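hiii, so i know i said id send this last week but things got crazy w the move. better late than never?? heres the sequnce for the chain we talked about at the cafe, plus the structure i predicted for it. fair warning i was half asleep when i ran it
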Amino acid sequence: MIRSSFNDGWFFRRKTYAFVELLGKADAGWEAVQLPHDAMVGRERDGADAGASGRGFYPGGAYQYKKSFFVPEEYRNRRVTLEFEGVYRDARVFINGAFAEQHAYGYTNFYVRADGLLKYGGDNEVVVEARSSEDTRWYSGGGLYRNAKIIVGGLVHITLDGVKITTPVIDTDLALVVVATEVRNESPVTQAVEVVTEIVDADGVIVARDEAPVTLFLGEAATLRQRLSVLRPELWGVDHPYLYSCRTRVTADGELLDEETTRFGVRSLTVDPHRGLRINGEAVNLRGACIHHDNGVIGAATIDRAEQRRVEILKQAGFNAVRSSHNPTSKALLDACDQLGMLVIDELFDAWTRSKVDQDYALDFPVWWESDVQAMVDKDFNHPCVILYSIGNEIPETGTAAGAAISRRLAEKIRSLDSTRLVTNAINGLLAGGPDLLASFAEESAARNRESVDVNGFMTRAREFMPTIMASEILASKTAESIACLDVAGYNYIESRYEMDRALFPNRVIVGTETFPVDIDKNWRLVQDNSHVIGDFTWTGWDYLGEPGIGRIEYEGDGEAANAALGHQGGYPWLTGWCGDIDITGHRWPASYYREIVFGLRTEPYIAVQRPDRYGHPVALATWWSWSDSISSWSWNGHESSPVRVEVYSAADEVELLVNGRQVGTAPAGEKNRFKAEFDTVYEPGEIVAVAYTGGRESGRTRLRSATGDVHLDAAADRTRITADDTDLAYIAITLVDEAGNVYNTADRKVAVEVAGPAVLQGFGSADPKPTENFFDTVRTTFDGRALAVIRPTAPGAITVTLTADGCEPSTVRIEAEPAHPSR
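okay and structure toks below
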């Protein structure tokens, strides 16, 4: 089949209705857009609607998209299908005014058979309707936010997602590659065809080939299973993500009827409580990051380069695995993980039959769950990066017999479609334990009225006795049946049971599917010391839109301190979760470097400085997802001679701190001291140096210098040559610096961006967790001296991006958008 992008030529507007249009009162203004497009991120946030806090105070709404496309006459005897990789949400598709398809879930791809509704030899119109409302606990985005494709095939063709590749036998000398190809005959006669399958290595060399005949009777779909031997195979793994291509062709009497190319990796996967997780026979501990689906300043728009860049940065930060919390991830992210060697837990649902918010997926689960499982497995099957399917996140039913029955149905449905991977479920102990568990610890009123208990809010206030709660026998008994159907038990914030459950459930394998960032040192020790615990996934690897302020710190005397009583979220204008190792622009926070040290991946010490204007201020609220209120900087203009606290992260025995060559002091570090040494000193402009000592000898040093002199506006693109198609972007990091490149984190100012040439500004913003500006503005204020502009090409040619700011010389970045390769 021929797959072509269907992203161009769309128009968008807020949805109108038939009677409104009939009366001539509809807003007729359609806006030209290119997919992927987020309909929500372009709207103004409104703090008046407290119910919109979960999605970052963006309003919900209903949307319409339309596109005209020409269908040539020769398509009359072919099959034409439209694919939508993600439409949020409750999509309905109309072709030439006729209803064609609907799809409830916002995170699984779906196909629309267009043949019977097309006008051949002329223009056609497709209209897609979608809505976003009170249906999510985080930022969802809206509309056609992932890629769309048009797929054209003959009457005899490989079915959609019809090539499935497994590697059941692998050793040093040979890998057995089994390719199952489903071919369908929709022609009026029986067809005798040949299926030719070739395995091609990364250099384009054919390393295995097979050809087999298949007779297809009228209306029949037949599956051909071919076994090919690849000699001396290159294996796919996190440190060596080698990919092969499988070329499949269907021919009849020498005529090519259809063809597909599928990338895959040769890798084995096993797990047991004694040797843990093994990939290709080697033990792997999962250094995991939970991530949401949005892409920061461009909203939910899932443009391929955004997904690629995110995986690149996560990998550089020391992660080797991601969990797609709490919904199936995009094809583009899986492609990036395949290429870069990032393991994936792909997660199905945040709700089954019990709602967490008024209009969430629980309303659709009874009807749609099987087709959504099918869609996710079909998407993932040939991606070597996917090692685990998660059937849910913090599902309340998991502590009941009815929930255990649903768990079994979901797990067995997945296994019937894909027996090569593992199944988990991310279980929250408080939800699964229910009122029986909470009754012993929560207030009596909360125990009487289960629906009034805000679990995240309860967790925020009750950390000191959570380990005791989680150790309860009630939790073990309530979850035993639901966990019994899993290959790996997913524990959300239940690490206090890791060692206990080794004795209680000796055959159980555990993964920390969600953990608090400040506990990584203790949790990673548990992973290293317990073979039945295969990894840790922090909440979160990357900050995200919605669920605002769950990682915030509030101080007594602040106007926002009253928000502490509201539970785990902040009030307007909070936008981001304000937690994670990496901010929404892709800049690494101190927590990221701390984690890298804990993982044993960084030997140099790292300096983080708590904001001096907060020194000595009593904390009114620090949530479980908070890190210290610090950044890596020694530029605190206006705070000269003020007291300041310095954190140094190090695996060394001891750390020495010097300010302008004078010793501030020494302090123990390393694992026994939670990899952190702290110093109180006075801010003096100049240089701060941290020197690490192991066994009495220097093992590393890091220095920070104060910014001095004029403020310069520095702008740097991640790549100056990009592809002029709908998959690529250029990211421009904007930083306020001095002549030597030291960051002026206290000199924030408005920056204006102007784009000239064949490109548009796709998004512009900073990591500010509570902005009053919008990502579609052309003027934004830096935060801690930084901002980010995202440029999307519209055609080949030279692109010039000019940035200006008060008191700074303008900065210019030039990018060349090159024509796309014909194969794309």
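btw The two ends are 14 Å apart (CA to CA). thought thatd interest u
miss u guys!!
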